Amino acid sequence: VSSIRQVGILEPLIVRPMGEEFEVVAGSRRLAAARELGMSEVPCIVHCLDDEEAVLVSLTENLQRGDLREEEIVEAFLSLRERNPSRWTPARFAERIGKSAAWMNGLLMAYDAMTKLRGAGMSVTMRFRPSTDERNDGAVSVSHLHEVEKAIRAVQNESGLSDSEAAKMRVELVKAVRDLPREDARLLI
User: Fold this and answer.
1) Which of 45, 60, 57, 10 is nearest to 30 (CA)?
2) Per-residue H/E/C for the chain
3) N or C end of the chain: which has fewer CB within 10 A?
């Protein structure tokens, strides 16, 4: 609100036609701030986007601003993949948002670890670089989760470790490495 009051809206909202009205694809916070200031008009760029493209445009803008949680990125991918599994592979999604396939695969493995930890009763979130406060609130770095999950899968493949044994090992490993620097965590894992 303060920024818009001082300099106006510098970046137009992206909208798409929805019948007689328009849906905001990117810029909902700018619109809310403009409304709070009593503005009756805002600059917009109109794009004819299908649902999948609208998700990608919104996601890309939020990624560029750093406004998305890692979990939201994965959930956007999963939503698109559910709609069209043959089109939305991790590599294709990563390419569309300007990331590498390896980056996306690591994020997906970390997400898998996080959901398994939650299933085991652990209150955990994931962040690329969690702050001390975030770690105190249960955040674990994506790289730590990825490394833990990769190690658990390797042990399961080699030794036939049961799912319940793997769940216990996953929880213990995450507890042991969550506050360690990346290289120390890798060594311990």
Assistant:
1) 10
2) CHHHHHHCCCCCEEEEEECCEEEEEECHHHHHHHHHCCCCCCCEEECCCCHHHHHHHHHHHHHHHCCCCHHHHHHHHHHHHHHCCCCCCHHHHHHHCCCCHHHHHHHHHHHHHHHHHHHCCCCCEEECCCCHHHHHCCEEEHHHHHHHHHHHHHHHHHHCCCHHHHHHHHHHHHHHHCCCCHHHHHHHC
3) N
Is pLDDT at 41 greater than 90 in this prediction? yes
| CB of 16 closer than 8 Å to CB of 53 | no
pLDDT over 90 at 98, yes or no: no
Single out the residue of 77, 157, 65, 64 nearest to residue 110, CA to CA. 77
- Measure the CA–CA gap between 176 and 113, rounded to whole angstroms: 15
pLDDT tens for each residue of 118-136: 999 999 999 999 999 999 9
